[in-house]
Amino acid sequence: MKVLITGTTQGIGKAIAELFLKKKHTVIGIDRQKASIVHECYTHYTCDIRDYENLPDIRDVNILINNAGTQNEHDIDVNLKALIRVTEAYGVQSNIRSILNIGSASAHTGAEFPEYCASKGGVLAYTKNVAMRIARYGATCNSLDPGGVLTPLNEPVMNSPELWAQIMDETPLRRWATPEEIAEWAYFLTVTNTFCTGQSILVDGGESINYHFIWKD
Question: Order of strands, edge to edge, in the sheet holding 42-46?
Answer without folding.
Answer: 42-46, 26-31, 2-6, 63-66, 98-102, 140-146, 200-203
